[in-house]
Design brief:
The chain contains four helices and three strands; from the N terminus they run E-H-H-E-E-H-H. Strands 1-2-3 form a three-stranded mixed β-sheet. The longest helix has 22 residues.
Length: about 100
Amino acid sequence: MIDVAKDIHPLTAFKRQTAKFARLLQRSHRPLVLTVDGRARFVVFDAEAYEDWKDRMEKVEAVNEALGETGKGRPAEEVHAQLRKKHFGVSRPVSKAR
């Protein structure tokens, strides 16, 4: 996701050329790593990329939580229906056009 040749910049360059970096963030939708004294200190996202990242992290956390559950378990169809309803607002699989 991060291209080390293009996405890592010193904080001072970001401060001096904020408009340039804002355009880059909007165009690439990739986060920028900002460094201080050669060390990564900050990660900057545009709003759309942040929302995408946040959604992915929530899904990963839900899967990790489910994997940590103990007990009898539930049928996969039930779990899939619950996830589709929660994340996509539908309870049935969307039929594929042929």
